[in-house]
Amino acid sequence: MARSSFSEHLQEELKKYGGIMVPVKAGLAERLLLKKMPVAWLHPNPEDEFSFPEIGPNPGIINKYISLYKQYGDMYRPEDLAKEPLMVEKVHPDGYMLLNGHHRWAAYWSLGVKLVPVSIINLTQETDIEQMIRDSKHDRRATLDLDEVVFCHDDEPYEKPRGGVFGRSSSKKIRLGIPKILHLLSRKGYDIWVYSANYYSMDDVQNLFQRYSVKVDGVITGTGRKTKESTESRKRVENLFSSRYTQTLHIDRDMILRTFADSKDFEEYPVTENGNGWPRAVLASLREMEKHGKAEG
Which domains, from first to last, does the chain contain? Predict the structure, then answer.
């Protein structure tokens, strides 16, 4: 029996799994040990543009990866630095859904490659957010973007970690002063929430902060993924946050923004230094904010 074309395979996959796949958490051993898996275990994300009939796979990109594999036995050239595996999420009823790497998956399938490199990601789900809010201890929170604020850029000064951790975030370095700032906020009665549009496993992020003796109360990853999440679902999560937290501090690289759940008012406090002086500037802005609050009180 002749093997079907990739386009036929894609349509079969979407017909079989579209609308029924539900993300489930992969266990620690599974994530640590399963670095390659049969290509037959992988399913396309029906909400990715790759799966849209009007957009669909790009044959030129697929052919580029096929050529690279034939030349190097890999989807990358030897000089390429970022050699990421296919990022996948475990799903019910079976297998793993692609988060990133659809065109490489198409090239592997077209070449008849049986085993492909993967990284299993446990993204934050709505039920995770609901549980983290229920477990929260305070009525105020501080939020930080992992990639924009927490992780170092280029040659910025960084904190020295303690112990090891696995996963994509293991190569990340936390910016100098972040642990001290987060410890202070925790003592002041703030829950700590971190988030990222990137595909980090929420358990990897929690483990990373543990290396710095920092406990984060909320981790939201994969906020940039395409989803058909209902308006009702998003509204429910927003209501949970607003009913739990009276204040939120959004800590950015150049300012701290304080918002209030019961008001459209907000306060901005500038962070005027970078590099070694950034933590000091953040702490100064937090002190100014605290004085402002006491003055109003």
Answer: 6-120 (3.90.1530.10), 126-296 (3.40.50)
CA distance 260 to 265: 7
List b or e across 130-155, with b for residues whose CB sees 16 or more CB atoms inside 10 angstroms. Answer: eebbeebebebbbbbbbeebbbeeee
Collapsing DSSP states into helix, strand and coil, what is residue 43?
strand
What is the reported pTM? 0.86
How far is it, in rounded angstroms, from Cα 104 to Cα 57? 11
Q: Average the pLDDT over 68-81 and give the result.
A: 90
Please, are residues 6 and 106 in contact by the beta-carbon 8 Å criterion? yes
Q: Burial of 43 by CB count in 10 Å (0-12 exposed, 13-18 middle, 19+ buried)?
A: buried
- Other Cβ atoms closer than 10 A to 111: 13
Q: Model confidence over 45-61: pLDDT tens digits?
A: 998 999 998 888 999 99
Tell me how far apart the alpha carbons of residues 106 and 112 are, in angstroms, rounded to a whole number: 10
Spatial separation of the C-alpha atoms in residues 219 and 214, rounded to whole Å: 13
Tell me the CB-side half-sphere exposure of residue 167, using CA atoms within 13 A: 24
Mean pLDDT of 176-182: 94
What percent of the chain lies above the pLDDT cut of 90? Answer: 68
SS3 142: strand
